[in-house]
Amino acid sequence: xxxxxxxxxxxxxxxxxxxxxxxxxxxxxxxxxxxxxxxxxxxxxxxxxxxxxxxxxxxxxxxxxxxxxxxxxxxxxxxxxxxxxxxxxxxxxxxxxxxxxxxxxxxxxxxxxxxxxxxxxxxxxxxxxxxxxxxxxxxxxxxxxxxxxxxxxxxxxxxxxxxxxxxxxxxxxxxxxxxxxxxxxxxxxxxxxxxxxxxxxxxxxxxxxxxxxxxxxxxxxxxxxxxxxxxxxxxxxxxxxxxxxxxxxxxxxxxxxxxxxxxxxxxxxxxxxxxxxxxxxxxxxxxxxxxxxxxxxxxxxxxxxxxxxxxxxxxxxxxxxxxxxxxxxxxxxxxxxxxxxxxxxxxxxxxxxxxxxxxxxxxxxxxxxxxxxxxxxxxxxxxxxxxxxxxxxxxxxxxxxxxxxxxxxxxxxxxxxxxxxxxxxxxxxxxxxxxxxxxxxxxxxxxxxxxxxxxxxxxxxxxxxxxxxxxxxxxxxxxxxxxxxxxxxxxxxxxxxxxxxxxxxxxxxxxxxx
Length: 514
Known about the structure:
The protein is α/β, with parallel strands linked by helices. It has helices at residues 12-21, 39-42, 57-67, 74-82, 84-93, 127-140, 205-213, 242-246, 271-283, 300-303, 305-313, 369-387, 415-424, 431-445, 452-467, 494-504, and strands at residues 5-8, 26-30, 47-48, 108-109, 119-120, 145-149, 151-159, 162-170, 173-178, 182-184, 217-218, 223-230, 250-253, 288-291, 323-332, 335-337, 349-351, 356-357, 491-492. It has a domain at 226-328: Succinate dehydrogenase/fumarate reductase flavoprotein, catalytic domain (Flavocytochrome C3, Chain A, domain 1, Alpha-Beta Complex). Helices cover 33% and strands 17% of the residues. β7 and β8 form a beta hairpin. α14 crosses α16 and α15 packs across α16. The chain is globular. The protein starts with a strand and ends in a 10-residue tail after the last helix.
């Protein structure tokens, strides 16, 4: 009997992959409870799908390529976008019901940089929670899937260029699991930053595991800042969906000025442009607000019930009050380099969802393409695993007591990393700041410290950003404000990242608590 496929992560990508593999045995590992602490559960915007009568994949592709600023893999993007009908049908089979209009037809919303209304929602702004509920229920009811909750994956076991198992920590014990097929669906890197809409524990664990095992990483410098997070003291920050601007809400500074008027697309310009415009206002000492009073007014609570509740918790009535907003890390376009079937550069290792870099998003993700990609690549990876020849004989696993694994850490431990990334790897970057970040992160990434893995991921972002001496999409360099004539993607392994870091690093003091 073959080992079960091990899937790490229980957001949309991991859940879809598990369900698509059935009836093949699957062991799904999740750091928290099933579907909890995932970015999917917090998603408000919806799923982009070119299914409307005035829309088609060609138009969707053109919008995706334009937002990606020359770095999208056009063939990969077309393949994923064409899968939208299959993704929507699969979600419907598992109980998801999308919002409809008064005629019973699908209700499509508009978001930034889309030329058509093509965003499907559920429960208004509760799409992510609805997807999580539906798919988690289906997973629990599937006899082929075993869920192991509160299990933290630490390292991949390899033999040569092949993955053969996973090291986990559960209930304080280190365990080794044999696995000839492993799927990483571990989410993004927002927890590495102070201001983020992602769960604070999302610090790129899957990326660190893949890099330590020898897999290639791609496009790590491209970190998308959502322009409109609710500007409060909460962590993580609450998202104010782009769909609110799609309904006509305006961006104003505290002088009452619409500062986006001179930008093509105005409030619905690509996210990188809107985020930098808001960042510039805040840097000048201004406050920034979203004004939905005229566009939505008393309809706000019905159209965006979740956002209305989030605002109300901080004493804001968005039907009558201005909503304070600021940019916050929301999505990572980079990650583990994969091909069209979700395969990494290591045999036996697939990556799906935000931890992967497929080439769909390029330098800047088009709004609501991420849930589509996660589900589409989950389906693709499942098909590819099913098509694989019989796996090799089980590799001999090392003794658990002799394995070098990262020590346990608390959420507060990442504050050291957050201080560095927030200062030097933010909306705007320059060589001096990137060099300072690299110098501070390199010794942490090479240590046995409990910060080694998050430091390694942050270091990769800094190194990729240092090597890209141009501004493109979500990567903006104040010392290189222009784009290169020809766009290029970059793939690097961990040894290459460390060599580049050592070339840049100059010793810098690291501010950290005892």
